[in-house]
Amino acid sequence: MSSSDRPIRDFMTPSVHTISMESTLPEARNLMQEHGIRHLPVLDEGKLVGLLSDRDLARLEGFPMVDFNLVSVPDAMSEQPYVVSPDTAALEVVRTMRDQRYGSAIVTEAGKVVGVFTTTDALRALADEWS
User: Fold this and answer.
1) CA distance 81 to 14
2) Which CATH number fits domain 3-130: 3.10.580.10, 2.30.130.10, 3.10.180.10, 3.40.47.10?
3) Suppose 104 and one of 12, 24, 50, 118 were both cysteines; which one would form an S-S bond, judging by CB atoms 3.0 to 4.6 Å apart?
4) In angstroms, what CA-CA distances link 7 with 11, 12, 88, 90, 117?
């Protein structure tokens, strides 16, 4: 079976770090730096409500008139992240990410975040396919 026929669960990063809506942006940045990640699903009482990326943080830090410490996670996050099920075909996910210019897909099952698939995961799958 080629990589494109396999489900996204075979390529996603399964242990996902998340952040709550009540967290601060400095906490989010520290979590990203500590774990070497660029995407944090945002949860409200266990439910996915958005996605905070390193790009979101960098954009805010670039505005000198904005106090980074006073901006809330809900104000900084993307409210409609790209969400897929673990059984979605990898090729479908990659094509959508390419076409929509998404940096990640959040993988959910029964309402719970079970993984994240990023461009890094896609490159890893491609390298494995070519080797």
Assistant:
1) 17
2) 3.10.580.10
3) 118
4) 8, 9, 5, 5, 11
State phi, psi for 103 to the nearest 5 degrees.
Answer: -90, -10
Task: Name every residue whose Cβ is closer than 8 Å to that of residue 121 and which is 6 or more positions away in sequence.
Answer: 11, 12, 13
Q: Which residue do the tokens 């059984």 mark?
A: 87
- Interval 50-69: pLDDT, tens: 999 999 999 888 888 888 88
Task: Give the residue from 84, 86, 99 showing the smallest Cα distance to 48.
Answer: 84
Q: Give the integer Cα–Cα distance in Å for 121 and 5.
A: 16
HSE-CB of 99 using CA atoms within 13 angstroms: 7
Q: What is the pLDDT of residues 116-130, one digit of tens each?
A: 999 999 998 888 888
Q: Which residue has the higher pLDDT, 128 or 42?
A: 42
Domain boundaries, the chain: 3-130
